[in-house]
Amino acid sequence: MISAENLSKKFGRKEVLKDINFCIQKGETVGVVGPNGAGKSTLLKIIATIMRGTNGSVQIDEMDTKKDTKKIREKIGYVPQEIAVYHELTARENLRFFAKLAKNSPEENWVRRCEEWKLAEHLDKKVKHLSGGNQRKLNILIALLHDPEILILDEPTVGIDISAKQEIVNDLRQLGSEGKTILYSSHDAQELETLCTSFLILKEGELLFYGSKQKVRQFGSVAQSKNFAETLGEIVG
Ligand SMILES: Nc1ncnc2c1ncn2[C@@H]1O[C@H](COP(=O)(O)OP(=O)(O)OP(=O)(O)O)[C@@H](O)[C@H]1O
Protein backbone atom coordinates (compact mmCIF):
# COMPACT_ATOMS: atom_id res chain seq x y z
CA MET A 1 0.00 0.00 0.00
CA ILE A 2 1.29 3.49 -0.90
CA SER A 3 -0.30 6.39 0.93
CA ALA A 4 0.33 10.12 0.91
CA GLU A 5 -0.84 12.30 3.76
CA ASN A 6 -0.95 16.08 3.38
CA LEU A 7 2.04 15.89 1.07
CA SER A 8 3.44 19.14 -0.27
CA LYS A 9 6.60 20.12 -2.12
CA LYS A 10 8.08 23.55 -2.59
CA PHE A 11 10.98 24.61 -4.79
CA GLY A 12 11.93 27.92 -3.20
CA ARG A 13 8.60 29.77 -2.88
CA LYS A 14 6.91 27.80 -5.63
CA GLU A 15 4.58 25.10 -4.32
CA VAL A 16 4.47 22.32 -6.93
CA LEU A 17 2.55 19.75 -4.85
CA LYS A 18 -0.26 21.00 -2.60
CA ASP A 19 -1.67 18.97 0.27
CA ILE A 20 -1.91 15.66 -1.60
CA ASN A 21 -3.74 12.67 -0.03
CA PHE A 22 -4.29 9.23 -1.56
CA CYS A 23 -4.03 5.54 -0.80
CA ILE A 24 -2.96 3.12 -3.55
CA GLN A 25 -3.69 -0.57 -2.94
CA LYS A 26 -1.22 -3.35 -3.71
CA GLY A 27 -1.55 -4.68 -7.26
CA GLU A 28 -3.07 -1.53 -8.76
CA THR A 29 -1.72 -0.07 -11.99
CA VAL A 30 -2.12 3.67 -11.52
CA GLY A 31 -1.98 6.15 -14.38
CA VAL A 32 -0.43 9.40 -13.16
CA VAL A 33 -1.90 12.06 -15.40
CA GLY A 34 -1.86 15.83 -15.79
CA PRO A 35 -0.70 18.70 -17.99
CA ASN A 36 2.99 19.61 -18.32
CA GLY A 37 4.31 20.97 -15.04
CA ALA A 38 1.43 19.50 -12.99
CA GLY A 39 3.87 17.80 -10.59
CA LYS A 40 3.80 14.20 -11.86
CA SER A 41 7.58 13.66 -11.97
CA THR A 42 8.00 15.37 -8.60
CA LEU A 43 5.40 13.11 -7.00
CA LEU A 44 6.94 9.96 -8.52
CA LYS A 45 10.42 10.98 -7.35
CA ILE A 46 9.15 11.53 -3.80
CA ILE A 47 7.49 8.09 -3.75
CA ALA A 48 10.70 6.56 -5.16
CA THR A 49 12.71 8.26 -2.31
CA ILE A 50 14.82 10.24 -4.80
CA MET A 51 13.36 13.52 -3.53
CA ARG A 52 11.85 14.58 -0.23
CA GLY A 53 8.53 16.30 0.27
CA THR A 54 8.54 19.63 2.10
CA ASN A 55 5.62 18.77 4.40
CA GLY A 56 3.43 15.74 5.01
CA SER A 57 4.45 12.15 4.44
CA VAL A 58 4.45 9.18 2.09
CA GLN A 59 4.17 5.71 3.59
CA ILE A 60 4.84 2.45 1.77
CA ASP A 61 3.62 -0.65 3.60
CA GLU A 62 3.61 1.43 6.78
CA MET A 63 7.22 2.52 6.31
CA ASP A 64 8.04 6.20 5.97
CA THR A 65 9.90 7.28 2.81
CA LYS A 66 12.02 9.73 4.84
CA LYS A 67 12.99 7.32 7.63
CA ASP A 68 12.99 3.85 6.05
CA THR A 69 14.60 4.82 2.76
CA LYS A 70 16.86 1.78 2.41
CA LYS A 71 14.11 -0.79 3.02
CA ILE A 72 11.72 1.06 0.73
CA ARG A 73 14.31 1.12 -2.09
CA GLU A 74 14.42 -2.68 -1.98
CA LYS A 75 10.70 -2.68 -2.80
CA ILE A 76 10.84 -0.11 -5.60
CA GLY A 77 12.05 -0.06 -9.18
CA TYR A 78 12.22 3.45 -10.64
CA VAL A 79 12.39 4.17 -14.36
CA PRO A 80 13.39 7.78 -15.01
CA GLN A 81 12.20 9.82 -17.98
CA GLU A 82 15.72 9.90 -19.42
CA ILE A 83 17.35 6.64 -20.59
CA ALA A 84 19.88 6.05 -17.82
CA VAL A 85 22.20 3.37 -19.24
CA TYR A 86 25.75 3.24 -20.66
CA HIS A 87 25.44 3.77 -24.42
CA GLU A 88 28.98 2.55 -25.21
CA LEU A 89 28.34 -0.81 -23.48
CA THR A 90 26.18 -3.64 -24.81
CA ALA A 91 22.75 -4.30 -23.35
CA ARG A 92 24.13 -7.44 -21.65
CA GLU A 93 27.08 -5.51 -20.13
CA ASN A 94 24.66 -2.92 -18.78
CA LEU A 95 22.43 -5.60 -17.26
CA ARG A 96 25.45 -7.41 -15.72
CA PHE A 97 26.73 -4.14 -14.25
CA PHE A 98 23.41 -3.12 -12.72
CA ALA A 99 22.68 -6.71 -11.61
CA LYS A 100 25.88 -6.60 -9.52
CA LEU A 101 24.65 -3.42 -7.84
CA ALA A 102 21.24 -5.04 -7.29
CA LYS A 103 23.02 -8.04 -5.67
CA ASN A 104 20.42 -10.80 -5.61
CA SER A 105 19.81 -10.91 -9.36
CA PRO A 106 20.79 -14.23 -11.00
CA GLU A 107 21.67 -13.93 -14.70
CA GLU A 108 19.22 -16.66 -15.75
CA ASN A 109 16.35 -14.61 -14.31
CA TRP A 110 17.05 -11.45 -16.29
CA VAL A 111 17.97 -13.37 -19.45
CA ARG A 112 14.56 -15.11 -19.22
CA ARG A 113 12.86 -11.75 -18.82
CA CYS A 114 14.79 -10.42 -21.85
CA GLU A 115 13.52 -13.40 -23.87
CA GLU A 116 9.94 -12.68 -22.78
CA TRP A 117 10.41 -9.01 -23.70
CA LYS A 118 11.96 -9.84 -27.11
CA LEU A 119 15.27 -8.23 -26.18
CA ALA A 120 17.38 -11.42 -26.02
CA GLU A 121 18.52 -11.23 -29.65
CA HIS A 122 19.83 -7.66 -29.07
CA LEU A 123 21.71 -8.31 -25.84
CA ASP A 124 25.16 -8.17 -27.47
CA LYS A 125 24.60 -4.92 -29.32
CA LYS A 126 25.91 -1.63 -27.98
CA VAL A 127 23.05 0.41 -26.55
CA LYS A 128 23.75 3.24 -29.01
CA HIS A 129 22.89 0.79 -31.83
CA LEU A 130 19.57 -0.32 -30.31
CA SER A 131 16.25 1.11 -31.47
CA GLY A 132 14.60 3.69 -29.21
CA GLY A 133 12.03 1.08 -28.17
CA ASN A 134 14.69 -1.45 -27.17
CA GLN A 135 16.61 1.23 -25.24
CA ARG A 136 13.38 1.99 -23.34
CA LYS A 137 12.84 -1.74 -22.65
CA LEU A 138 16.40 -2.01 -21.32
CA ASN A 139 15.79 1.01 -19.07
CA ILE A 140 12.77 -0.79 -17.58
CA LEU A 141 14.46 -4.21 -17.32
CA ILE A 142 17.28 -2.62 -15.31
CA ALA A 143 14.73 -1.25 -12.82
CA LEU A 144 13.32 -4.79 -12.49
CA LEU A 145 16.64 -6.50 -11.71
CA HIS A 146 16.04 -6.69 -7.95
CA ASP A 147 12.48 -7.94 -8.56
CA PRO A 148 10.76 -4.99 -6.87
CA GLU A 149 7.13 -5.19 -5.71
CA ILE A 150 6.47 -1.68 -6.98
CA LEU A 151 7.47 -0.29 -10.36
CA ILE A 152 7.42 3.48 -10.94
CA LEU A 153 7.73 4.67 -14.54
CA ASP A 154 8.00 8.29 -15.63
CA GLU A 155 6.87 8.61 -19.24
CA PRO A 156 8.63 5.41 -20.33
CA THR A 157 7.36 5.37 -23.92
CA VAL A 158 8.21 8.90 -25.01
CA GLY A 159 9.60 9.18 -28.53
CA ILE A 160 9.20 5.57 -29.66
CA ASP A 161 7.10 4.04 -32.42
CA ILE A 162 3.60 2.65 -31.92
CA SER A 163 4.52 -1.04 -32.12
CA ALA A 164 7.31 -0.65 -29.53
CA LYS A 165 4.86 1.26 -27.30
CA GLN A 166 2.32 -1.56 -27.60
CA GLU A 167 4.94 -4.17 -26.73
CA ILE A 168 6.00 -2.24 -23.63
CA VAL A 169 2.38 -1.73 -22.55
CA ASN A 170 1.73 -5.48 -22.98
CA ASP A 171 4.89 -6.37 -21.03
CA LEU A 172 3.81 -4.04 -18.22
CA ARG A 173 0.29 -5.53 -18.22
CA GLN A 174 1.91 -8.90 -17.71
CA LEU A 175 3.82 -7.51 -14.71
CA GLY A 176 0.55 -6.10 -13.36
CA SER A 177 -1.13 -9.48 -13.68
CA GLU A 178 1.79 -10.99 -11.72
CA GLY A 179 0.76 -8.73 -8.82
CA LYS A 180 3.22 -5.87 -9.08
CA THR A 181 1.98 -2.39 -8.18
CA ILE A 182 2.70 -0.02 -11.05
CA LEU A 183 2.70 3.79 -11.15
CA TYR A 184 2.83 5.02 -14.71
CA SER A 185 3.03 8.60 -15.90
CA SER A 186 2.10 9.30 -19.51
CA HIS A 187 0.36 11.78 -21.81
CA ASP A 188 -0.96 8.99 -24.06
CA ALA A 189 -4.63 8.39 -23.24
CA GLN A 190 -4.82 5.21 -25.30
CA GLU A 191 -1.96 3.45 -23.54
CA LEU A 192 -3.24 4.69 -20.17
CA GLU A 193 -6.67 3.21 -20.89
CA THR A 194 -5.18 -0.12 -21.97
CA LEU A 195 -2.80 -0.45 -19.04
CA CYS A 196 -4.19 1.27 -15.96
CA THR A 197 -6.75 0.11 -13.40
CA SER A 198 -6.94 3.49 -11.64
CA PHE A 199 -5.96 7.10 -12.17
CA LEU A 200 -4.34 9.87 -10.19
CA ILE A 201 -4.86 13.21 -11.88
CA LEU A 202 -2.83 16.27 -10.95
CA LYS A 203 -3.23 19.86 -12.06
CA GLU A 204 -0.99 22.72 -10.93
CA GLY A 205 0.14 20.63 -7.99
CA GLU A 206 -3.35 19.74 -6.78
CA LEU A 207 -4.88 16.27 -6.78
CA LEU A 208 -7.98 16.65 -8.95
CA PHE A 209 -9.03 13.01 -8.98
CA TYR A 210 -8.02 9.64 -7.66
CA GLY A 211 -10.15 6.62 -8.46
CA SER A 212 -10.80 3.57 -10.58
CA LYS A 213 -11.00 3.48 -14.36
CA GLN A 214 -14.71 2.77 -13.87
CA LYS A 215 -15.11 6.07 -11.99
CA VAL A 216 -13.36 7.92 -14.82
CA ARG A 217 -15.84 6.35 -17.26
CA GLN A 218 -18.78 7.33 -15.01
CA PHE A 219 -17.50 10.90 -15.01
CA GLY A 220 -17.44 10.64 -18.80
CA SER A 221 -21.10 9.66 -18.98
CA VAL A 222 -22.05 12.57 -16.69
CA ALA A 223 -19.98 14.98 -18.76
CA GLN A 224 -21.23 13.31 -21.97
CA SER A 225 -17.71 12.80 -23.22
CA LYS A 226 -17.43 10.49 -26.20
CA ASN A 227 -14.39 8.43 -25.26
CA PHE A 228 -11.82 7.83 -22.56
CA ALA A 229 -9.28 10.35 -23.91
CA GLU A 230 -11.95 13.06 -23.99
CA THR A 231 -13.07 12.17 -20.48
CA LEU A 232 -9.53 12.51 -19.13
CA GLY A 233 -9.32 15.85 -20.95
CA GLU A 234 -12.62 16.98 -19.35
CA ILE A 235 -11.38 16.13 -15.86
CA VAL A 236 -8.06 17.90 -16.35
CA GLY A 237 -10.03 20.87 -17.76
N1 LIG B 1 14.46 20.86 -9.27
C1 LIG B 1 13.54 21.79 -9.50
N2 LIG B 1 13.74 23.08 -9.14
C2 LIG B 1 12.79 24.02 -9.36
N3 LIG B 1 11.60 23.78 -9.93
C3 LIG B 1 11.34 22.52 -10.33
C4 LIG B 1 12.30 21.46 -10.12
N4 LIG B 1 11.77 20.30 -10.62
C5 LIG B 1 10.55 20.62 -11.09
N5 LIG B 1 10.31 21.96 -10.92
C6 LIG B 1 9.05 22.64 -11.28
O1 LIG B 1 7.99 21.97 -10.63
C7 LIG B 1 6.84 21.93 -11.47
C8 LIG B 1 6.39 20.48 -11.61
O2 LIG B 1 7.38 19.79 -12.40
P1 LIG B 1 7.25 18.26 -12.76
O3 LIG B 1 8.45 17.91 -13.58
O4 LIG B 1 6.98 17.48 -11.53
O5 LIG B 1 5.94 18.26 -13.68
P2 LIG B 1 5.36 17.15 -14.64
O6 LIG B 1 3.89 17.07 -14.38
O7 LIG B 1 6.15 15.91 -14.51
O8 LIG B 1 5.59 17.78 -16.10
P3 LIG B 1 5.90 17.07 -17.51
O9 LIG B 1 4.61 16.42 -17.97
O10 LIG B 1 6.28 18.24 -18.39
O11 LIG B 1 7.03 16.10 -17.32
C9 LIG B 1 7.22 22.61 -12.77
O12 LIG B 1 6.78 23.94 -12.72
C10 LIG B 1 8.73 22.55 -12.77
O13 LIG B 1 9.27 23.64 -13.49
Shape call? globular
The share of residues in helices is 25-40%
The arrangement of helices and strands along the chain is EEEHEEHEHHHEHEHEEHH
CATH topology: Rossmann fold
Oligomer: single chain
Q: What is the count of DSSP helices, taking H or I runs of 4+ residues?
A: 9
Count of the separate structural domains: 1
List the helices and strands and how they pair.
Elements: E1 2-11, E2 14-24, E3 29-33, H1 40-47, E4 55-60, E5 63-64, H2 69-75, E6 76-79, H3 91-102, H4 107-116, H5 132-143, E7 150-154, H6 162-177, E8 181-185, H7 189-195, E9 198-203, E10 206-212, H8 213-223, H9 228-236
Bound molecules: adenosine-5'-triphosphate.
Residues 11, 16, 34, 36-42 line the site of adenosine-5'-triphosphate (ATP).
Q: How would you portray this structure in words?
A:
It comes from Fictibacillus arsenicus. This is ABC transporter domain-containing protein. Keywords: ATP-binding, Nucleotide-binding, Transport. InterPro entries: AAA+_ATPase, ABC_transporter-like_ATP-bd, ABC_transporter-like_CS, ABC_Transporter_VariousFunc, P-loop_NTPase. The protein is an alpha/beta fold. The chain has a single domain, classed as Rossmann fold. It has nine helices and ten strands. It has helices at 40-47, 69-75, 91-102, 107-116, 132-143, 162-177, 189-195, 213-223, 228-236, and strands spanning 2-11, 14-24, 29-33, 55-60, 63-64, 76-79, 150-154, 181-185, 198-203, 206-212. The strands form two sheets. The protein has a six-stranded mixed beta sheet, with helices on both faces. Strands 2-1-4-5 form a four-stranded antiparallel beta sheet, covered by helices on one side. Strand 4 (55-60) and strand 5 form a beta hairpin. Helix 3 (91-102) runs parallel beside helix 5. The protein is globular, with a radius of gyration of 18 Å. The site of adenosine-5'-triphosphate (ATP) has 10 residues, from helix 1.
